[in-house]
Write a structure and sequence with these properties.
The chain has 516 residues and is an alpha/beta fold. It has a 7-stranded mixed beta sheet with strand order 14-15-18-13-22-19-21. Strands 7-6-5-11-24 form a 5-stranded parallel beta sheet, with helices on one face. The protein is globular, with a radius of gyration of 24 Å.
Amino acid sequence: MIVNDIKVPVRHTEEELYAAVRKAAGKKNLKIRMLQILKRSIDARKKPQLLYVMKAAVNEPRIRAAKCPYLADPSKQVIVIGAGPAGLFAGLTIAEAGGKVLILERGKPVEERCRDVEDFWKTGRLNPSSNVQFGEGGAGTFSDGKLNTLTQDKEGLNLRVLEIFHEAGAEENVLYDARPHLGTDKLPEIVRRIRERILKAGGSIRYESMVTDFSVRDGRVCGVVLESGEALPADAVILACGHSARDTVLHLYRQGVRMEAKPFAVGVRMEHPQQEITAWEYGTLDYEELGAAPYRLSAKTSSGRGVYSFCMCPGGQVVNASSEEGHLCINGMSASARSGKNANAGIVVQVSPEDYPSESPVAGIDFQRELERKAYLAGGGKIPVQLYEDFREGRVSLSYGEVLPDHEGDSAFADLREILPEAVVQALLEAIPEFGRKIGGFDRPDALLSAVESRTSSPVRIVRNEEGEASIGALYPCGEGAGYAGGIVSAAMDGIRTAERVMKALGARKKETKER
């Protein structure tokens, strides 16, 4: 039986948990032989008395995700472009179904990529193909590693993704916590294990193999061309290039692939003392087992623009996440322990195609690039920063207050109002005081702002039909870069979904299923 709304103190014994299960089930004499937690969240409405609210399977065989229903045709070659979550999970799905799959990644293996990123943060020397955005694991490798998603999941793919992460080394609680995370210190090893699983299943991966062109015959993609000039044939191509592969998207646009501009969000990262956030959210600092508290904020401004917290990183760092020379963007990341002194989150404002410089479907890329160019110039190549009070008053900061930056990459004081569009500035000035009424001290004068948070999602959607194909046949766009995901799990889910569509199109046959 499935039991919902189980409430138990955060600190509880097994006896207390079982008693709470019986109470929620309405069966005081229920004998519990087996208990599997399916969902767990924190109820802090009566802080500092915190509760877990759970959903559990009682006396049931362990609930597991459904496996891929197809057996791939091993004579058909599938090429996957990109080794982020969408590409890795697409490649894994095809390989484990017996298919022939080759993943092409413009960047380096995750181990080498980590060294390049560390060198960039220390020296400012950018490798345009191996950085926070590009390389095995995708942009999420240098983040908090959040595994929650708001994506609708009619196929049960969410649990399949979480199980793969767990099998690759993530803690068991990622299977049921409402806000699971991996941590940027754990992600490289998890990515490496997923790679090994792909290779063991018969898939192939090539690094430093940037796709620069597509071979098209009779309106269908039949292969790709690498930067080296090498041509590779394919029966289908899965495009999972991530939201920063602007060159690839622009090339496809010039080739006539149908696209449309889509809204996204831009803004700043905002840092506060983590202890203050935790004390406010939980009403106490006593729950060490819960770690640093996260938050989620949103507001609607008088102009109609939405402002919200994005990729909140408890106990984390603000990082220089640039991928193009002469341009600068930032992101946030947390290690698994979330033990840094600051909380940081993107505080971002919704922008739409009406804000872009033209009506072109790819005009949002120009919009992003202009903000990132201004950020680079404002900070002289360093992360531009400003105290909230000085941002509000329109002056460059001269010194820090009590909130000191916790950054990867050098920082420099600048006027962030010179970087951001005026509509975004005004929306931030209206929303941040409102957030201060929701979390005490959020609008403190010395809270630290950094810019520019510009890669919240892709500003372009590559149009695909119900079978997942682009306007050029045999090309299957998926993940964040194609405009169909917004995080690690949703991208991985879309990669699995796309892989299954490809296998079906290439003549895969259904697996025989046995009744339990």
